Amino acid sequence: MGPALSKIDREHPPQLAYGTAGFRCDATQLVIAMERVGMLAALRSRDRDGLKIGVMVTASHNPHRDNGVKIVDPTGAMLAQAWESKAEKVACCPESQLLETLASVAEGEAASASVVIGRDTRAHSRALSQRVRAGAEALGARVEDVGVVTTPQLHHCVRAANGFSPVVKGPLYGYADALVDAFEALLKTSPHKTGRPDSTVVVDCAGGVGAFGIHQLRRRLEERGLASVLSLRAANIVREAPLNHQCGAEHVQKQRLPPKNLSRRDLGAPNLRGCSVDGDADRLVYWFHGLSNFEIVDGDKIASLLAVFIARELAAAQPLIGTPSLGVVQTAYANGAAAAFLRERRVEVAFAKTGVKYVHHAAEAFDVGVYFEANGHGTVLVKEALRARLAQLDSEPGTGGRARLAVSRLHAVARLANQSVGDALADLLLVEAVLCLQQKSIAAWGALYDELPSRQLKQRVASRALLEPNATETRLVAPAALQAKIDALAASHKSGRAFVRPSGTEDVVRVYAEAATRRDADALALEVRRAVFDLAGGLGERP
Ligand code: 16G
Ligand code: MG
């Protein structure tokens, strides 16, 4: 892969930023960064008293030529933000300054260090993960390589290996077994005891690692006789489609198009529901072929489905658990109609910056925090105290009753939802269980509320760092002239709303627009993109 190791200029490593989700760029630029991340992970482990630190080699939904790396803290959470700048210093310093840079970062005294490494299916991921291993071992860390895994699986392994979640027996620290156990527990609370007429879900695996996870789930569902409730059909598995190319969650949600190989004609059967995961399976969006259109059921609607279900169960469980707080956290990309729908049902809605580390943090403010980005990345967080109370009540011999049933449901949700990070496989089971309990079709779910039409575009500029967004990324603090122009453009369309923000994963500025009609949303997006080109140093042809 990339340049031979001997040809790499170690005095001038590529200058990378630890962005929304770690280091990410063309794979050929990453050899040194991978070694240094291995070293940093070893130091972080010492800093955390020798607990295991995770390193995931993936560039998620990016094109195959890119790769990347994310660091996972001992609880399974993303790397503490205070360490991101340390990661940058270590990854980018000249080799002649490496020792002193490492010394400036090293705070921990622990005698041992331990690193868990996972990777996605990219052709260069194996070689890059070996560089991570070399770096970690160079600083004396013990390395466990869990091979090809989804990003949420790696988070789970780290969390479970450090004892922060109960370990279930089975491969990958019982990941698939724990999920299917919780799924079964949730289904057991259903008054409908037979299978479903629409039990089949086609899963577009984006040509990536999701296919392995789906295979693990399918086998367990079959073994437990649950296939009549949920039968998973994996499509676009590793050799059927090039990674993320015209398939996967990013393609479906951004382009608003069916994934490759799964048009209405390819599916062969009407009324099938489908979903798409991304290249490292931490995102999930649903879709179906409606009467005339291809319909997407995105992260906003996943959050709405789950939040309304949870709100009802919390109300029913009130005699036993009191009134824990529930909130939904969204980003600027959430459709305006989603927040209105939730507020009408008295569910609190909060906003955070794009990127899981921000929304996750904001969701921790609630006893039950549901967060989803419109792009399908999200989960349901349940505070430890509430989780323990639910577990205790659920284990007591039951007298039945609605409150007790609600406790069992909430406890199963807490076990099923990934507590570290958005997880396409866990979310898939959660959504399917709720649809099954509510006997809801995907069409009825999709019709929960009417979205305002929206459009997303991107524009390359000379320096995206010149764009400075506010805390929720809904407006620009600078350049002021560009924000003023965006305001004027949005005001010229009915229900117009638009914003731009520098991408944290690609060298582009992202443009989002929504308006009352499809025509207006498309026009507004294009006008804003032109404004970015004119007022923020656009590159290439004027749009
Ligand atoms: C990363 C983020 C995702 C965010 C996206 C935005 C994680 C694990 N993933 O994929 O949450 O929506 O970046 O990308 O944090 P952008 O900054 O390029 O728009
Ligand atoms: Mg991803």
From TrEMBL:
Catalytic activity, EC: 5.4.2.3
Domain Phosphoacetylglucosamine mutase AMG1: 298-438
Catalytic activity: N-acetyl-alpha-D-glucosamine 1-phosphate = N-acetyl-D-glucosamine 6-phosphate
Pfam families referenced in this protein's UniProt entry, alphabetically: AMG1_III (PF21404), PGM_PMM_I (PF02878), PGM_PMM_IV (PF00408)
Domain spans labelled Alpha-D-phosphohexomutase C-terminal: 479-530
Highest taxon of source: Eukaryota
The keyword Manganese is assigned to this record: no
Cofactor: Mg(2+)
Gene3D superfamilies reported for this sequence: Alpha-D-Glucose-1,6-Bisphosphate, subunit A, domain 3 (3.40.120.10), Alpha-D-phosphohexomutase, C-terminal domain (3.30.310.50)
Catalytic residues of the enzyme: 60
Keywords of this entry: Isomerase, Magnesium, Metal-binding, Phosphoprotein
Binding positions for Mg(2+) per the UniProt entry: 60, 278, 280, 282
Recorded metabolic or biological pathway in which this protein acts: Nucleotide-sugar biosynthesis; UDP-N-acetyl-alpha-D-glucosamine biosynthesis; N-acetyl-alpha-D-glucosamine 1-phosphate from alpha-D-glucosamine 6-phosphate (route I): step 2/2
Class of this enzyme: isomerase
Gene Ontology BP terms: carbohydrate metabolic process; UDP-N-acetylglucosamine biosynthetic process
Domain Alpha-D-phosphohexomutase alpha/beta/alpha, residue spans: 51-88, 98-162
GO molecular function, one term: magnesium ion binding
Protein family (similarity comment): Belongs to the phosphohexose mutase family.
Protein name in the entry: Phosphoacetylglucosamine mutase
